[in-house]
Amino acid sequence: MTETTEQLALGRQKVVEDLRVLLADSEEMLRLAGAVPGEGVDALRERLRTHVDALQETLSDAQSAAHRRYRAAAVNTERYVRHNPWQAVGIAAGIGFVLGALAAR
After folding, report:
1. DSSP symbol at 35
2. pTM over 0.90
């Protein structure tokens, strides 16, 4: 993986974690708002419930998309290794050599 790809993956991971925190906080606010009476609070409560539901759906969609991309990458990697076994062995040996050299320092 390139450095840019790794940064994008970490950025996506951070966004998903932030969405989880936002979802948990929103659900807690919704639970606390349930005890407060009033017309304005009812409208706020309904809007918050709509946002929480939308956020849950978005998070679920993001997780599904990430799982599909991971699965596709795994299938493509396996296909490459099966079609190019000697290149795969060479790449693995090169990576092992570099990691070994770094670990020896």
Report:
1. T
2. no
Q: Which residue has the tokens 């978005």?
A: 58
Mean pLDDT across the chain:
79
37: left (phi over 0), alpha (psi -120 to 50) or beta: beta
Better-predicted residue by pLDDT, 89 or 50: 89
Contact 59, 95 (CB under 8 A): no
Residue 10's pLDDT is what?
65
- Domain layout of the chain by residue ranges: 3-104
Strand, coil or helix: 55 = helix
**Taking a C-beta distance cutoff of 8 angstroms, is the pair 55, 23 a contact?**
yes
